[in-house]
């Protein structure tokens, strides 16, 4: 008997796993073993393992050397492990869910980079995994409008799209080669979240793009001010940037709780 497999290991994996668990009987879940975090080296399970335990879903830890002989196909979503070429060769029916319209925005941060680049649309792609990164044959794509949306909103819309699309996706389709101009994304560092010396447009894009990874921040009154959201409506609660005013709505001042920007300004008086 052949089984459908799921490979995932972080919070972005969980919505895809939830959909597949609802749709597939006897889904086999593969995740990564717990690691140690912090000074106390506390053992910490990943979000997929936690979700499985909370929902009584059986799972196994990934084994790089294993051939999954009973696998009909495997769906990979935000799995923090790059498969070796030898693993791909002995487990050939593996498909990755990538959150862009490939070949655009290959790599680790496709949603965030699309926002930073002022894209109007993005989407997700399911492709057959090969020996290179995000280059395999495409079996399915769907798109959505991302104008003025935060990364968290885009992630949620993609999760919802996949939930409605799943039954129409043919995982036995040979797929088509990726066509068009390709582009790569990068892992962002803390300094990338800094908007202190940015233009208004760049600052707004960073606030939207980094609401999960960041948040964006600036140096204001000689302290770090994290900015979670902003408004397009002009008002007196504003910050001067290089070419205009930013109107934050939710902020986290250095050493304090998250609050409205209005409350923060009142506390300065």
Description:
The chain is an alpha/beta fold. The protein has two domains: 3-168, Rossmann fold (3-Layer(aba) Sandwich), CATH 3.40.50; 190-268, Methionyl-tRNA Fmet Formyltransferase, Chain A, domain 2, CATH 3.10.25.10. It has seven helices and 14 strands. The strands form three sheets. A seven-stranded mixed beta sheet has the order 5-2-1-6-7-8-9. Strand 3 and strand 4 form a beta hairpin. Helix 4 runs antiparallel to helix 6.
Secondary structure layout:
Layout (H helix, E strand, L loop, with lengths): L2 E5 L6 H10 L4 E4 L3 E3 L4 E3 L2 H8 L4 E3 L9 E6 L8 H6 L3 E5 L11 H7 L4 E8 L9 E8 L5 H15 L34 H10 L6 E5 L2 E9 L7 E3 L2 E10 L5 E2 H8 L1
Parallel strand pairs: 1-2, 1-6, 2-5, 6-7
Antiparallel strand pairs: 3-4, 7-8, 8-9, 10-11, 11-13, 12-13, 13-14
Q: Spans with pLDDT under 50 lasting ≥5 residues?
A: none
Q: At the first level of CATH, what is the class of the largest domain?
A: Alpha Beta
Distance between the termini: 70 Å
Q: The CATH topology of the largest domain, please?
A: Rossmann fold
The CATH superfamily of the largest domain is: Formyl transferase, N-terminal domain
Average of pLDDT: 95
- The assigned CATH architecture of the largest domain is 3-Layer(aba) Sandwich
Q: Main beta sheet, described?
A: 7 strands, mixed
- Helical residues, percent: 10-25%
Number of separate helices:
7
Rg, please? 21 Å
- Please state roughly what percent of the residues sit in beta strands, choosing from under 5%, 5-15%, 15-25%, 25-35%, 35-45% or over 45%: 25-35%
Structural class: alpha/beta
Order of helices and strands: EHEEEHEEHEHEEHHEEEEEH
